[in-house]
Every structure is written in C-alpha cells, then in structure tokens.
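TL;DR need structure tokens for one chain.
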Amino acid sequence: MYKFGLGLFWCGITSILPETAVAQNCIQPLGLSKNTEFVYQVTDKGRNNGTLSNKVVQQMANKEGVYVTTFKSARLGKTGRPETTEEYRIKCSGDTIYLDAMLLLREQALKAFEGKDFSYTPVDIPYPQQMKVGQLLPDGKLGVKVRSSNIDITQISMVATNRKVEAQETINTPAGSFDCFKISYQYIVELDAMGMPLRDVFSVEEYFSLEHGLVKAQFTTKRGKKAKGLELISKRNTAQALQNK
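>> reply
TL;DR here they are.
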C-alpha cells in the first residue's frame, strides 16, 4: 500500500444528473467523466518508484444531495508489478471540492501496530473552485485510533496544515502543459509511541489545476531532502479511447 499525504491527491467530478440534483458549479469542475484515468510517475528521493493510476468508477449524488465521485487508485512498483488497489471518494458541494481525508494516511506510521484495530476520524481536504493567489485554505485531517481487545493503545494524527495558494504557474509534464495554482502546506504526523511523543514534518509544494486536478506534488523533509513526489504523465478517458479504435 502506498499512501503518503496529499501526494496521492487528484480528483474529478462530472454530472450525469439534472442541474436541480446537484449545484451548477459541481458539474464537471475538473473536466472529468466516468472512466477518466490519470496516471502519475511516483518518485522517492528523486528516483523512479513506479506509477499510480487513478480511475473514475462511479459518480452520483448521495441522499444529502452532495455529488460524490468514487475512484480506484492502483499502485504499480518500479518493475510494473501491482502492489495495491484502493478506492476513495471525492465530494462536491457548493463551490468546493472535498478530497477524501483517507488520502492523508501514511502507512509507515501504522506499521508498528500491525494486527491491531484501527478507527478513523476524517476531515476532508477542501479545494475552493474560486481559488486565488494569497488565499489561505482550511486544514485537512485524519485521526487514527489504535485499539486491541477494546483497549486504546495510541492515537495518530495526520494533518495537512498551513495551506496557502502561493502563485499561478504553467507546469509542463509528459501529459502536457497545465495552468495551475501552486499550493504550499505542511504535512504533519504525530503519535504517542509507548509514552514517547513522535512528530514528523514535511513541507509540500503542490500544483493543482481546476480543470484537471493534481498535476504535480513534491514532499520535502525538514532537512531539505526530497521525499515522495508525483507528476502527471497521462490523462485519458478509457471508454472514449476504445470507441475511437
């Protein structure tokens, strides 16, 4: 399982319902439809570490009238071997897209507790569709409670905080050129390990397009070294591609 903060982040929502069922600004906010697939190059310390494929599998409004996109995230190792497959949900309400807080999960923080029970308290990560330079964005959070035989062992906090829209830039990737907002933030992991508090902090630069979602992201350690990274290398609608053959 490859989960490391917002580096996995991307989202897309498109409406197949009447406008009365979902707000106007939730109709195709990122220009995606069912079967749209984004593929990212994954790096670790600046080196190739495989790919990540995110594909829209379902779109519908829930009982509260919030439009929800479900996407399947498949991780391939650098040899092309499948590693994990997960599903995440993105919500669109009003003029804001909310990314699934489970994307904040850093599995490395849970390895010491294998075989234990986990419960999650998510606060999804908001992306306003009326974004502007200088804007401060709300935090995204994921709380994890670790239990064994109904006994609490520890709690882990994973937070994307101090989120700020720094600039508008054109980013060139193998998938093309994209007009993006540059968003900076801190990704902080905190836990109590046998009475010893631990805290890990990463600086993140993320390039986000309101027409295409996440284009590029880079995590940097507090020592200034590159950690995980993502870059968009392909975007396509697989159903349309088959029809055009």
